[in-house]
């Protein structure tokens, strides 16, 4: 986060204040989506019973794969925007759809997490593609040619990141179309996942209202893209303020709910 702040200041010095604010808004959006990723990482680590000592290794490989995937998707998105600007409406549709889907899932009766994961197509497909073993040998991905649960977890994380990128890349293009800012805000957010995981892995379960607040951010950015395509401009300062208020509101509501719950138990 400190490195990202220094980079934002550098952008402001070399490219102007507007670029610095665009980076801050983009980084905040991408960081919030990264926190959402942590929910999935924690669920997968628990589902595959990944030991604590092996989690950093899987996380590192996952981050490297995510950076490569985002680079490809951002490049493709930049080329598409340059040649077909109306693709912004497709990006906006993806964000609004994702926002509605997340909110519906949040407010509907949720199933048991283990049951949901056992039916997940990523986990089912991965198990069919590789010869597997229930044995675990330290942090090894394979034992005698058979994939361990650690490798299956890594594959599930890599594939799930592709799904997350479908929301993440359009979201940052909704903040700025500058390829440098789009790429760097993504990279800084992803690179900070490891330290973020270390800090939030035990607390993320308590942030129950963070996911719907992220959904509202996606919906806002989608609406912003539609308005701007039709000539209604929303300033980067306004976007940054709305994103910050939605995310901080989600965190504050989560902490208040946790506090109320603890007081109720007492």
* Mean pLDDT value: 80
Q: Main β-sheet: number of strands, strand sense, barrel status?
A: 2 strands, antiparallel
Order of adjacent strands in the largest pleated sheet: 1-2
Would you report the number of β strands?
2
This entry's quaternary arrangement is single chain
Elements, N to C (H/E) = HHHHHHEEHHHHH
Q: Compute the gyration radius: what is it?
A: 19 Å
| Terminal residue distance | 37 Å
Strand content: under 5%
State the helical fraction. over 70%
Number of domains: 1
What are the low-pLDDT stretches, counting only 5+ consecutive residues below 50? none
Q: Which class of secondary structure composition applies to the elements?
A: mainly alpha
Any idea what the shape is?
Answer: globular
Query: What's the total helix number?
Result: 11
């Amino acid at each position: 986060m400190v490195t990202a702040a220094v980079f934002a200041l550098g952008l402001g010095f070399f490219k102007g204040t507007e670029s610095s604010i665009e980076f801050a808004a983009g980084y905040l959006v991408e960081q919030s989506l990264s926190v959402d990723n942590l929910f999935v990482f924690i669920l997968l680590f628990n589902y595959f019973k990944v030991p604590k000592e092996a989690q950093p290794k899987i996380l590192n490989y996952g981050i490297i794969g995510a950076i490569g995937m985002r680079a490809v998707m951002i490049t493709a998105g930049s080329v598409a925007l340059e040649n077909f600007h109306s693709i912004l409406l497709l990006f906006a549709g993806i964000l609004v759809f994702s926002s509605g889907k997340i909110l519906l899932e949040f407010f509907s009766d949720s199933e048991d997490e283990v049951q949901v994961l056992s039916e997940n197509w990523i986990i089912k497909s991965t198990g069919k593609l590789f010869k597997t073993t229930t044995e675990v040998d330290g942090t090894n991905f394979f034992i005698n040619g058979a994939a361990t649960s650690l490798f299956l977890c890594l594959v599930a994380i890599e594939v799930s990141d592709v799904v997350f990128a479908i929301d993440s890349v359009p979201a940052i293009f909704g903040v700025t179309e500058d390829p440098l800012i789009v790429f760097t805000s993504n990279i800084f957010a992803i690179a900070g996942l490891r330290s973020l995981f270390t800090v939030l892995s035990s607390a993320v379960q308590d942030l129950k209202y963070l996911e719907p607040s992220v959904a509202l951010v996606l919906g806002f950015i989608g609406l912003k893209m539609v308005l701007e395509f039709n000539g209604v401009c929303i300033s980067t300062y306004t976007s940054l303020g709305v994103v910050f208020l939605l995310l901080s509101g989600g965190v504050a509501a989560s902490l208040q709910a946790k506090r109320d719950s603890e007081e109720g138990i007492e």
